[in-house]
Design a protein that fits this description.
The protein has 16 helices and 23 strands. With 488 residues, it is an alpha/beta fold. A hairpin with a 2-residue loop joins strand 20 and strand 21. The protein has three domains: 85 residues, Urease, subunit C, domain 1 (Roll); 292 residues, TIM Barrel (Alpha-Beta Barrel); 71 residues, 2-Layer Sandwich (Dna Ligase, domain 1), CATH 3.30.1490.130. The longest helix has 17 residues. 55% of the residues are buried. The strands form four sheets. Strands 1, 2, 3, 4, 5, 19, 20, 21 and 22 form a nine-stranded mixed sheet that branches. Strands 6, 7, 8, 9, 10, 11, 12, 18 and 23 form a nine-stranded parallel sheet that branches. Bound molecules: zinc ion and copper (II) ion.
């Protein structure tokens, strides 16, 4: 007797292979049988006219603290996500002090304390969220812990202290090291520092993920740096949120994709992730620094910068810096300075990509899907936080025909699991974890907009994390069946 059978459904197994009709049986937390199960089950779900895929793996998240503060993780489970990779863009969940300081800029709710990455994982295991969590070590957070925000190279002793942090994370089971080379303090690191730290991962299977130094006119040299780090450290590379940012850089993705292809043809393991929108989102302090927007090659028009969250100033949320400046009766830089003074952790949405580039990157074989959502649940976050996966499936695969549904699913399941070393997930096969999404391929679509972003996607019938129902018909359940995933 199985626990559950989903009958007569169109099964996409996550490998990219075409779908086939059949039944799927779950026993406990695992997939027990695929095809025509011999036994009956305690519960039968009719999958007619629906499709079944592996649970979506969000390889690029900033959910490090949300999984503790909001364990229902409804903003992810309702969109079909069963696994999140946290610790991206150089911001990781340990050491606790700089990590919790960063956390407070995203969500003011108080956090418990933990010791190192081991302690973070134990905290999650004591109070599991509804999604599985794989963790990256954040270079910026490690550097912050050791040398504050200093704009200089580390001393030998400081380098040793950073290595200790990375080593603890790797031993705890982290899946890689991330960098954020536009942020403080990550941007002060030279290439050699990153190679030195990434080298600790050689032979472990852990990867180097990077928010590169420059996604604008400097895109190509930034991709070259990421590839160099991977090559010299001997580790796989994941380029985060691959894009060309700013009008003058539009079109460069054709060449950055070529750089990835060249590295791959030399045998290097290099891929990228992407969110399916022409606007990004980050902290205001990252785009407005020293009284000016942008920086060389990163020009930013104040009308394209919209406040997503500003603690204590919800009236600013949804308004552009240009609009705020007009209301305040001052210049745009003055308005931005005011915002940062009163809400230092303010986040923004920034309109800076070209649709054609988004499609060029998405179609490319090196690209998997990651939301890069910032869980500022009290503000007006970028709609990618809720809608990324439904948008790729409904909008880009089905409506725009960018690629077949099986291929789109592969890029958020099997492909992602393989890259991040999540060996028992991402594909539908007997013995694999029962992380599953049952959805209507004719109806699935994101519904959030920049004006009204906190919207549940349509067409997702049921989501199972380790065999437990975490979301059903647009409502989150009380199941907290997510596991802490450690590097194999
Ligand atoms: Zn980033
Ligand atoms: Cu990010």
């Amino acid at each position: 007797m199985y626990d559950l059978i989903i009958r007569e459904t169109e099964i996409f197994d996550g490998t990219g292979a075409p779908s086939r009709r059949g039944d799927l049986a779950i026993e406990g937390s695992k997939i027990a049988a695929v095809g025509a199960p011999s036994q009956s089950a305690r519960e039968i779900v009719d999958g007619t006219n629906l499709a079944l895929a592996p649970g979506f793996i969000d390889v690029h998240t900033h959910d490090d603290f949300a999984v503790i503060l909001h364990p229902d993780m409804a903003f992810k489970t309702l969109g079909g996500v069963t696994t999140v990779v946290v610790g991206n863009c150089g911001f990781g969940p340990a050491p606790w002090k700089p990590a919790s300081r960063f956390a407070a800029t995203v969500d003011p709710r108080p956090l418990p304390q933990w010791e190192g990455f081991r302690g973070y994982m134990q905290t999650l295991e004591a109070n599991p969220p509804a999604v599985n969590v794989a963790t990256l070590i954040g270079h910026g957070t490690a550097r912050h812990a050791v040398m504050g925000l200093d704009a200089r190279e580390p001393t030998g002793a400081e380098m040793a202290a950073m290595k200790e942090i990375v080593t603890e994370g790797l031993e705890a089971g982290c899946v890689g090291l991330s960098s954020g080379l536009i942020y403080d303090p990550g941007r002060h690191a030279r290439t050699d520092e990153l190679i030195d730290l990434a080298s600790l991962m050689r032979g472990t299977g852990a990867l180097y993920a990077t928010h590169m130094r420059d996604e604008g006119l400097g895109l190509l040299s930034s991709v070259a740096e990421a590839i160099e780090i991977g090559e010299r450290a001997g580790v796989p590379v994941q380029i985060s949120h691959h894009k060309a940012s700013g009008e003058r850089a539009w079109g460069l993705v054709t060449q950055s994709l070529k750089l990835i292809e060249d590295a791959q043809s030399k045998g290097q393991n290099v891929h990228a992730d992407q969110y399916p929108y022409t606007a990004g989102s980050t902290s205001l302090s990252a785009v407005f620094r020293d009284g000016a927007f942008g920086g060389p090659g990163r020009e930013t028009a104040p009308k394209n910068v919209v406040i997503a969250s500003a603690q204590g100033h919800s009236d600013w949320e949804g308004r552009s810096i240009e609009d705020l400046a007009r209301a305040m009766g001052c210049s745009a830089p003055e308005a931005a300075t005011q915002v940062l003074k009163q809400a230092p952790g303010a986040t923004i949405i920034i309109h800076m990509m070209r649709e054609e580039d988004v499609r060029t990157v998405m179609r490319h074989k090196s690209t998997m899907i990651g939301s890069d959502g910032i869980p500022t649940l009290d503000g007006k976050p970028h709609p990618r936080l809720y809608g990324t996966f439904a948008r790729v499936l409904g909008h880009y695969a089905r409506d725009e025909n960018l690629f077949p549904m099986a291929e789109a699913i592969h890029r958020m399941t099997g492909f992602s699991a393989k890259k991040f070393g999540l060996t028992d997930r991402g594909v539908i096969a007997p013995g694999k974890a029962a992380d599953l999404v049952l959805f209507d391929p004719k109806k699935i679509i994101d519904t959030g907009t920049f004006e009204d972003p906190k919207k549940t996607p349509l067409g997702i019938k049921a989501v199972y994390t380790n065999g437990q129902l975490t979301a059903q018909d647009g409502t989150a359940t009380t199941a907290r069946s997510g596991r802490t995933l450690r590097r194999a």
